[in-house]
Design goal:
The chain is of the alpha/beta class. It has 15 helices and 17 strands. Helix 9 runs parallel beside helix 11 and helix 10 packs antiparallel against helix 11.
């Protein structure tokens, strides 16, 4: 794999965070060594990558004071929000829950499904997921769970996929820390596990890049939110703050447009710029053509090879395997493969999805609880 980093599905990985909370609440030894507590707040900051934060500690005073004691987790493959949030909520790698990217082919509908917007997605979301959420499992043993997330996400397919089993506390004033902290405090009163989602860091990175002053300003705002939430921590309440992926800025001159270079012939394109999933009738020929054209800019893998290498976890169901591209194109350095099939991609500056450490590693900040 060279410069790539495989997920640590058997250890410090986002997939094991909620299972570790479950273990602590049940009196068992967790996979991730989090403190004992009576209640847990799990905060997911979209785009909160280890390397991006580490480089900009002068813009996040509170986080800089606690990062030294943080754990470093890997996210899943692809390193993208829909997959990572499903891994968090279901507590399993993507091979088990089946959300294998930002966009991918779903045989039951015969189309490319967008996992965030659910465009072309099947109606039966529960069956699509294949696995219960950890919140559902916690509820079954008497542990009440809540979710503090944007009001417009409350009934989304991704919320139903990853966060079924939670009572919703909808955010109506995005970007206002006092509002979010109050909702988390309210949720904490009657619930044992509270999930809180913050999306604006990722949104700013996509729009302006992680090298921009706008992203640095947003990182400072995230720092303020984490500092405010930290006031809710105690020996009885443990706060776990993490991210779903990091991000890489992709310059215009490092973007390969598949259609312009003859790469799109005979393939259906899914995924995203940093990790393309290609669906085709002749994977060997397509893989060879893409590998020859991209050279050192990418690693081109066949589906079964990626499965056997552990990209999607130790178990990949037949249903999940059918959703994974026949050919997978993981980009190196700051390269991306764009497609005119997805015109909105061309306005994006910051990207993610591949297996570089910049995209794969996220911090786990631990506040409160008792060792």
């Amino acid at each position: 794999m060279g410069d790539f980093l495989l997920p640590r599905y058997d250890g410090d990985c986002l997939t094991n965070l909620l299972p570790s909370v479950q273990d602590r609440l049940a009196g068992r030894v967790p996979v991730i060594d989090i403190p004992k507590a009576e209640k847990y707040i799990v905060v997911l900051v979209d785009g909160f990558g280890w390397h991006q934060v580490q480089r900009n500690l002068d813009h996040c005073e509170f986080v800089s004071g606690v990062l030294g004691s943080a754990r470093r987790l890997t996210t899943a493959v692809p390193s993208t929000t829909a997959t990572a949030l499903s891994c968090l909520g279901c507590g399993t790698p993507p091979g088990r829950h089946g959300v294998v990217g930002y966009s991918f082919f779903e045989p039951s509908v015969g189309k490319i499904v967008n996992a965030l917007t659910w465009e072309n997605g099947p109606d039966d979301v529960e069956a699509f997921r294949q696995a219960p959420t950890r919140f559902q499992e916690l509820g079954a043993v008497g542990c009440a769970c809540a979710a503090v997330t944007l009001a417009r996400f409350e009934a989304s397919a991704l919320t139903r996929t990853a966060f079924s089993g939670t009572t919703q506390f909808p955010v109506t004033a995005e970007g206002e820390p006092e509002h979010v902290v109050q909702l988390v405090a309210d949720a904490l009163v009657g619930h044992d596990v509270v999930y809180c989602y913050e999306r604006l860091l990722d949104h700013t990175g996509h729009g302006h890049g992680v090298a921009s002053w706008q992203w640095l300003d947003r990182l400072g705002a995230v720092d303020d939110l984490i500092a405010a939430l930290a006031e809710l921590s105690s020996p009885e309440v443990c706060i776990l703050v993490t991210g779903d992926h990091g991000m890489i800025d992709v310059p215009a001159e490092r973007r390969v447009v598949a259609e312009d270079e003859g790469l799109a012939d005979g393939v259906l394109i899914g995924g995203e710029g940093r990790l393309r999933q290609l669906y085709c009738h002749d994977p060997a020929t397509v893989a060879a053509r893409w590998a020859r054209h991209l050279g050192e800019r990418a690693a081109v893998w066949r589906r079964q090879d990626a499965i056997e290498a552990g990209w999607f976890g130790p178990e990949v169901t037949a249903t999940t395997a059918a959703r994974i591209g026949d050919v997978l194109v993981a980009m190196r350095d700051d390269w991306a493969v764009m497609s005119t099939t997805f015109p909105g991609e061309f306005s994006i500056v910051g990207m993610h999805g591949s297996l570089t450490p910049e995209e794969m590693e996220v911090p786990l900040l631990i506040l409160g609880g008792a060792q």
